[in-house]
Amino acid sequence: MNSTVSKQFIFIGGKPILAYTIDAFEKSSLIDKIVLVINEAEIEKCKKIIVNKYNYKKLMKIVPGGKERQNSVFNGLKVLPSETNLVAIHDGARFLITPDIIDRAVRDAYDSNGVIVAMPIQDTIKETNSNKIISKTFNRDRLWAAQTPQVFPYSIIMKAHEKAREDNFFGTDDASLVERLGYEVDIV
Q1: Which chain positions lie within coiled-coil regions (predicted)?
Q2: Residue-level pLDDT, tens digit, the chain, 188 residues
Q3: What is the DSSP letter of 50?
Q4: Of 42, 96, 131, 155, which sits with the fewest C-beta atoms within 10 Å of its C-beta?
Q5: Which distant-in-sequence residues (6+ apart) come within 8 Å of 101 by Cβ?
Q6: Looking at the domain assignment, is residue 154 inside a domain?
Q7: Which domain covers residue 33, as residue numbers?
Q8: Residue 12 lies in a domain
Q9: What is the domain-level CATH number for residue 40?
Q10: Cα dist. 77→5, 34, 37, 114 in Å?
C-alpha cells in the first residue's frame, strides 16, 4: 500500500482500520484484555484518534513496538501477567476479522499447543533454485496461508519467543517459533 500513513491509521468509512480490529476483539466473548503494540512514534496518535474516541473496556495497555514484528510481539507478551492462560496475537491492520473467528480460534486453542487462522492456498506454489529454475511444485491441497489471530497458551508462546531471542532466530509468524520447539500447531 503506497501511503505515508501507517496502515492501521488509514480511515475507511470514517473510522481508522485499527478501530475496526479492536472492535472485533472487544465484541469477542472469549477475550478478556487487549494489549496494543504500536510504533513508539505513533502511540500518542493512537491514543488521540482511537483510544480516547472509542472508550474500549478491554484495553489493558499500549506498549511500544520493536524493530521487527517479532520484537513487537515479545514486548506485548512481557506486560501480560504470568498467570495468563491464552494469548491471541493479531495484526491490527487485518480489520476484517470477526468476533466469531476470534472465538473459534480461542476455543480450539484451549485443547492444543496453539491454533492459527489460515486460508487454503488457491494459487500454484513453485520452489526454485538459486538460478530461478523450478525445482518443485507443491500440492496446494495441503498448503495454507497463515493469517491472524494466532492463539497459544501463554507459557508456550513466551517460551518460544525467549528461545528465538536466545538463538537470534526470526520467524515469519508466531506459529513458526512454537513449531521449532517441537509443538504441533493446529489450523482453524
Answers
A1: none
A2: 556 778 999 999 999 999 999 999 999 999 999 999 999 999 999 999 999 999 999 999 999 999 999 999 999 999 999 999 999 999 999 999 999 999 999 999 999 999 999 999 999 999 999 999 999 999 999 999 999 999 999 999 999 999 999 999 999 999 999 999 999 999 99
A3: I
A4: 131
A5: 117, 149, 188
A6: yes
A7: 7-187
A8: yes
A9: 3.90.550.10
A10: 26, 11, 10, 15
**Is 2 within the bounds of a domain?**
no
Q: Kindly state whether residue 1 falls inside one of the protein's structural domains.
A: no
Pair 84, 58: CB distance under 8 Å = no
**What cell does 64 get?**
511500544
Query: Distance between CA 181 and CA 160 in Å, rounded?
Result: 7
Radius of gyration of the chain (CA): 18
The dihedral built from the CA positions of residue 181, 116, 77 and 155, taken in this order, carries a sign that is negative
What is the tally of structural domains in the chain?
1
- 3-class state of residue 157 by DSSP: helix
